[in-house]
Amino acid sequence: xxxxKETTVEQRLRALYDIQIxxxxxxEIRNVRGELPIEVSDLEDEVSGLQLRLEKLEHSLADIDTxxxxxxxxxEEAKVLIKKYATQQENVRNNREFDSLTKEVEFQELEIExxxxxxxxxxxxxxxxxxxxxxxxxxxxxxxxxxxxxKSELEAxxxxxxxxxxxxEAKVVEFKGKLEDRLVKAYERIRTNAKNGLAVVAIERGxxxxxxxxxxxxxxxxxAARKKLITDEHSGRILVDAELAEEQTVKMNKMIAKL
Length: 259
Hints:
Layout: H1 9-33, H2 36-89, H3 95-176, H4 181-193, E1 200-204, E2 207-208, H5 217-225, E3 230-231, E4 238-240, H6 242-258
Parallel strand pairs: 1-4
Antiparallel strand pairs: 1-2, 3-4
């Protein structure tokens, strides 16, 4: 493995600030996407759930239709039996046989009444389920349209930024490869713990960028001398002077514009 070239503290500071600028630009790109990928995933799950519900409702409707058909068949069979028993009553030999056939007729009539009652209930269920199906289809159509819009929106953003993001990520790897591993790890640790992802900040009006804590003049002079790496005692961020920050910002913005 080739030994990394020795660098001065100032070169390290410039390299770290360059990496910070690139990382901040990557953050901006990802912030533009925001919650869109999660939103698209959630919508896909919702649409999938609605479609599964529709399938279950359709199956349930088919089962009810089968039940109605079964009850209608039962009614027809009962009518045939009633006709049969009525014919038999004409040829009975005694009252006991007549009464027995009468009870069979009454039983079949009750079976018909019960079957007709069930058919009415089933038909009411059909009306109710069809209403639910219509509402579910309408909701699913609306969600699918919303998903299509969000996917299109996400795709447009990805197409617009993917090339730049990949180029920037490659630059970060390239720039980090020129620094000592311990320095890169320190930068990454500070960046991970920072709310806005800033691990390297410039001095602004006597304070570290984004902070209200004033940095003593002596420390500001040491930072401007660029002889050692100095961190903010409050935030832990690596500090650079405003002039170095301005120079690197101009340089890096030109590089990013060419990507």
